[in-house]
Structures are given as structure tokens and as C-alpha cells.
Design brief:
This protein is 78% helix and 0% strand. It has a single domain, classed as Cytochrome c/b562 (Four Helix Bundle (Hemerythrin (Met), subunit A), Up-down Bundle). The N terminus is likely disordered. The longest helix is centred in the first third of the chain and has 55 residues. It is built from 5 helices and no strands. The protein is mostly helical. It is elongated.
Length: 156
């Protein structure tokens, strides 16, 4: 093989690597986003158990406030964990395509749900058990609205 032909082959291989590496990186970052959002939602479930118990008992304490604050903090991160191309068509995920069809609406649900959990935390910090119950009822309803619209069935 001539020197020019070898040089051309090396150059083309390098160019292909440069051109294709962003595709590999975006696929990897989408996969990482899916894993991160599943872990975040699993954490929400644990905090919601604390809030449900407080709501049923009508209690308002530091653990209740912390659980609500943790969900609120997670909701602020959540939107960034739904990049285009990270739906159930490509990954084991319950995220429905409707999320990306109207992302602004999805983002609005997340912001509304965040505000609801901020209210739960405020009631807990104020020692208002009835306020915790009322605010958690609204927060749970907000979660459910979003899940009905945007969360698909569990995948096997």
C-alpha cells in the first residue's frame, strides 16, 4: 500500500471517529439520563411514604418537611433528565412520547408539582398537621395527573 493511500485511510478513520463520537456521547448521555430519572423517581417513592404517613396522622415534623424538600429539589432536576431520544422507544423507560410532543406542558406539570411540595414543606415547618394533609393531597393529585398523561406501563 502506498504512503498516500495509508495516510488517506488514517485520515478517514480519524474523521469518522470525530464525526461519530458526538452520536455515541449523546446516546450515552440519554442512557445516563434514563438511569438518573429512574433513580430519582424511586427516591420520590421513599419520600412519599413518609409524607403519606404524616398526612394520614395529621403530623407536621422535621422528617415531613425534609421529605417534601427532597422531592421539591428532585423535581427541579427532573426536567433535565428527559432529553430528546430518551423515551421508551429506545430505553427501558415508562416515559411516553407525549412528553416530547408537548414538552412545555410536561415542564409545567413538574413546576406545579414542585410548588405543591414546597407547600407541604412550609406546612410541616409551621407545625400545621392539617396543612400538611391538605397540601400533600394536592401534591399527590399533581403527581397523578402527570403520571396518567406521561407514564406508560412497566416494561418487562
Amino acid at each position: 500500500m502506498s504512503f498516500r493511500l495509508t495516510l488517506a485511510a488514517v485520515a478517514m478513520t480519524a474523521l469518522a471517529g470525530i464525526c461519530l463520537s458526538p452520536l455515541a456521547a449523546s446516546a450515552q448521555s440519554a442512557e445516563d439520563a434514563v438511569k438518573a430519572r429512574i433513580a430519582l423517581m424511586d427516591g420520590f417513592d421513599e419520600h412519599a411514604k413518609v409524607l403519606l404517613a404524616s398526612s394520614k396522622a395529621g403530623t407536621a415534623d422535621a422528617a415531613t418537611a425534609k421529605a417534601a424538600e427532597e422531592i421539591s429539589a428532585g423535581l427541579k432536576k427532573l426536567i433535565g433528565l428527559f432529553p430528546a431520544g430518551s423515551g421508551s422507544d429506545k430505553f427501558k423507560s415508562r416515559a411516553k412520547p407525549e412528553i416530547w410532543a408537548d414538552f412545555a406542558k410536561f415542564e409545567g406539570y413538574a413546576k406545579d408539582t414542585d410548588a405543591a411540595f414546597v407547600a407541604v414543606a412550609a406546612a410541616a415547618k409551621a407545625g400545621d398537621g392539617a396543612g400538611v394533609t391538605a397540601a400533600f393531597t394536592k401534591a399527590a393529585a399533581s403527581c397523578n395527573v402527570c403520571h396518567r398523561e406521561y407514564r406508560g406501563p412497566r416494561q418487562q
